[in-house]
Amino acid sequence: MTKLRGMRLIVWGSGAMAGAGAVAARSADAATLPKAFAMVPAAKVDSGDTAWVLIAAALVLLMTAPGLALFYGGMVRRKNVLATLMQSFILAGLISVQWVLFGYSLAFSPDHHGLIGGLSWIGLNSVGAAPDPDYAATIPHSVYMLFQCMFAVITPALITGAIAERISFKGFFLFSLLWATCIYDPLAHWVWGAGGWLHQMGALDFAGGTVVHISSGVSALAAALLLGRRMGYPHEPMTPHNLTMTVTGAGLLWFGWFGFNAGSALAANGLAASAMVATHVAAAAASLSWMATEWTVRGKPTVLGAASGAVAGLVAITPASGYVDPMSALIIGAIAGAVCFFAVGVKFRVGYDDSLDVVGVHCVGGITGALLTGVFASKIINPAGADGLLNGNPGQVLVQFIAVAASVAFAFAGSLILLKLVDVLVGLRVDSEEEQMGLDLSQHSEVGYALED
Questions:
Q1: In CATH, which superfamily holds the domain spanning 47-432?
Q2: Model-level pTM?
């Protein structure tokens, strides 16, 4: 997400006589000056920018359904495939309605002490065809809202992979609504909102390393710990029932991620092109890195590993995509592929049941990418950003670390509280009979495959 920019007026005086001075203007950050001295260019809708961001919003929706739905759906056992698909699909409805009613207002409306937006945009009041110069001066405000809605949709859907095959639908539904409201919306305001405290501190998160991936990955860990292991884990085999579905989902995620990252430029310009190149390069490098690491450690490369590696690279490049050059993106992807491979194995040593490796890929990948953004970021790529460690600004690594730590602490503690609340109100986990039967039948009275005996 590019920083808010403005114009600063400097008056050069050459004498005491009125009118004897000359006036010049140069670019600077309007936030550093009194409003009386800020010159903000008039907002005007650009048809090319608008068309690109509309397409990008559609691409991000595709990431959730069918992309993430298929990616997760193929990795569960056959008796849970429909329930897993449903968890991603229904959030496109639930979170979109929440976003329109009050979620967008909480995340992006005028600031309250750097922590949360207000309710001035409730029901999309004042969110229409005119641009909002605080966020995007060349597209309608409603288009910006829609683009951000798709981020809000996919983020709680990511959590479901850690608690697949054992959470009740009513528990999942209520938790997702509360989580979006109490965790995602405030965190989005911290990082992207005008006046958000992490934004003001200078934290770099172009498209959601902290807001989307770290928050969902840490919350997934909290949920996996609270719900406990699946029946029979880790002694019984729980192999994916349809890896062709998973690879299809991974391909759709890769495709949709171009909208996720390049769309965050909010314009059809060189920055969008740079972000798209970085996104693709990082995904490719991470897929190869995961495969090579797995091949070395386990003797054979797996298709699931190659697909998971690509997703790990996409996660890691997300915060950096608008701030780094292609070679930096390649390095970030290569590091993320290997790091996330080993991170996934931690669950077997520690003993928690992260069903579909959300913690190892999204939490660890998001943290890796956020910190490496502080290493490789360059103002040559994005003048509205900041230089990182390798470009003479070691302090950016500390800023990134503070953003990561704040996101981890807030999402983990907040998720534990919400999970316990939901468990008291409606229950979180299905009973042993329902789990044995499978969530397709026990929660939805349907089966994914009508197979004859």
A1: Ammonium transporter AmtB like domains (1.10.3430.10)
A2: 0.90
